[in-house]
Inverse folding.
């Protein structure tokens, strides 16, 4: 029983770690998009028909950075809680 609980907690840590990596990658990719277009608007003018569409793309990328960043932070907190549970479980408390 104790080994199963430890195994389950370790699997949860792995799952949240993978989700953390995934969300962090999404934050990085959206930041690269925003940084890449911040100095050169010409490619955007070729892709979009109006400045409003450019502003919508920038706002949506910014919201994605915020959302994925917030989700990544939640996974960090979950990992921390699971590690505390694992430590107290293995210490016999």
């Amino acid at each position: 029983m104790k080994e199963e609980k430890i195994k389950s907690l370790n699997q949860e840590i792995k799952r949240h770690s993978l989700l953390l990596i995934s969300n962090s990658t999404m934050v990085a990719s959206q930041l690269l998009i925003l940084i890449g277009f911040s100095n050169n608007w010409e490619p955007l003018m070729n892709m979009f028909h109006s400045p409003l569409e450019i502003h919508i793309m920038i706002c949506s990328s910014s919201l994605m950075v915020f959302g994925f960043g917030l989700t990544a932070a939640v996974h960090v907190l979950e990992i921390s809680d699971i590690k505390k549970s694992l430590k107290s479980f293995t210490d016999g408390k």
In short: Residues 20 and 72 are 5 Å apart (CA to CA). The chain has three helices and no strands. The mean pLDDT is 86.
